[in-house]
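User: Please run a holo structure prediction.
Assistant: Happy to. Please share the sequence and the ligand.
User: Here you go; the ligand is adenosine monophosphate.
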Amino acid sequence: MSENLLLFGPPGVGKGTQAQRLSSVFQIQHIATGDMLRAAIQSYTPLGQRAKSFIDKGQLVPDDLVLDLLGERLQHPDTRRGFLLDGFPRTVPQAAELDRMLKSYGKTLDRVIVLDAPEEELVKRISGRRTCESCQASYHVVARPPRVAGFCDRCGGVLSQRSDDSEEIIRNRLREFSAKTKPVIDYFVTHDWPVRMIDAAGNMDQIFGRIYASILLS
Ligand code: AMP
């Protein structure tokens, strides 16, 4: 059985952390456009170079760049068992294009999970966030500290703060979310996508429990 999931919500709501756990529980591919863009920047691809100036300012990357990355990824054979989209779609045109792509690949989404939390909570979560430079595992200096400060529990890699996780850039990212990404929820609802709204207050395990139940109780 395959499970095709979409995790949607503002920056800092915990999509990445929940996505890592969900993709391991369901044995499906975690597809995060933010991670793919950061990898393109690190490899100095032309697409990465174009995307960098937007990401550094906390703005959304133009739709055509993201769609180029994603279209290929969704056709990869490793998505046959299922996939988990994280951070995509972020605009209404991206949602419409995803709709078109899924239909043309003969795929459907089993669940669209919409996470939400108050803005001040999001700022707190993002500013304390640290990511392993080697395996991308995520931590939080208060809520989920590593056993040894500055180093990954899983692989011993160095933990660092993303350059777009500074408070000024976070505020821009939240503004972009309200203006361009939030309207995507209306698209989901009017097009009968299988949406479940999940309260993302509380700790990681509580949020995971709510998401897991919303997937199993179809
Ligand atoms: P994330 O890792 O999901 O927080 O994404 C980091 C940054 O990558 C965002 O602030 C955007 O600049 C860019 N980005 C990621 N996914 C998308 C997307 N689907 N559309 C446009 N920009 C994106």
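The mean pLDDT is 94.
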